[in-house]
Design goal:
Length: about 300
């Protein structure tokens, strides 16, 4: 059963966010709307600017804990909005759970369309490796467009036979910019944040003329073999629900270990609102999943004397 806080958040998004998103056609105006209401980050975390692999961004480190692993967090925002600052509830929560987190401030569309974001994510990943972060202790996470970007990064690394993360945690990943998932239609009224025309327009803004079925832009169309274990969380009412459920189905068919959970009531990327019990539960599950696979991936190296 969903919490009262989840129902409240759904109502708040439905009445305060969705009408603003629906009534604006200019993506720059939508960008301002999306970046104007950042939720407070966790306390006890230091956020400091940094550059990794030539990509500017932000480090999140807990004040009272020594990190045991490193995480590359790729923020959402439709590839045209948001920043490391807007997504501090994610990076800060991971930091408090023992991760050293880098959030790249990757280039945004329409000024920098596909594949700029993928190039920046790849550069940041290589930068972490160049800083002597062992790949078996590196993980990746992302929400919405950042979840799709995390998949694009891992597919790129696989295709180039380069080291991949130990595991990835994806929150409502945007995997199909062609918007062919049945939930785009079936959840059109139930989704508290998005509507289909806006979703398509956002995809076109990022693609900049590229095909929506390009597997690096839309991992729904990619062959998923060779990816690390995936945790996928999505809300049942989201128009992007089937971007997650189809991803899980295709990944399992390719032999990938997948943990999928579809949550009732909660709106898109509810994890930003840490006052909601389901947000804390989702982040704890993601943290446990990533730590478990880091331990598993690093174990052989630790046994060598």
């Amino acid at each position: 059963m969903a919490s009262l806080q989840a129902h409240f958040l759904d109502l708040m998004f439905r009445t305060q966010v969705k009408p603003k998103m629906k009534g604006v056609s200019d993506v720059i105006a939508v960008r301002r709307t999306m970046e104007s209401g950042s939720l407070p980050p966790p306390k006890g975390v230091t956020y400091s600017p940094g550059t990794v692999g030539g990509i500017p961004g932000e480090w999140a480190r807990a004040d009272a804990a020594q990190p045991t692993a490193t995480l590359l967090y790729l923020h959402g925002g439709g590839y045209f909005a948001c920043s490391p600052r807007t997504h501090r509830p994610f990076s800060g929560t991971y930091a408090k759970q023992g991760f050293e987190v880098f959030v790249p401030d990757y280039r945004l569309a329409p000024e920098n369309p596909f594949p700029a974001a993928v190039e920046d994510a790849e550069a940041a990943w290589q930068g972490l490796l160049d800083m002597d972060h062992a790949p078996e202790r590196l993980t990746v996470s992302g929400d919405s467009a950042g979840g799709g970007l995390a998949l694009a990064l891992m597919l790129t690394l696989r295709d180039k036979s380069r080291p991949r993360p130990a595991a990835a945690a994806l929150f409502s990943p945007w995997t199909d910019l062609a918007a062919t998932g049945p939930s785009v239609v079936s959840n059109a009224r139930r989704d508290a944040m998005f509507w289909a025309p806006g979703l398509v327009r956002g995809g076109e803004t990022y693609l900049g003329g590229a095909s929506a079925d390009n597997p690096i832009a839309s991992p729904h169309y990619a062959k998923l073999h060779g990816l690390p274990p995936l945790l996928i969380h999505v809300g049942d009412r989201e128009i992007l629900r089937d971007d997650s459920t189809r991803l899980a189905e295709h990944a399992r068919a390719a032999g990938i270990e997948v943990e999928l959970r579809v949550w009732p009531v909660v709106p898109h990327v509810w994890q930003l609102a840490q006052f909601v019990p389901e947000a804390r539960q989702s982040m704890q599950a993601a943290t446990d999943f990533l730590k478990r696979h880091v331990a598993r991936s690093a174990a052989p190296a630790q046994s060598v004397t």
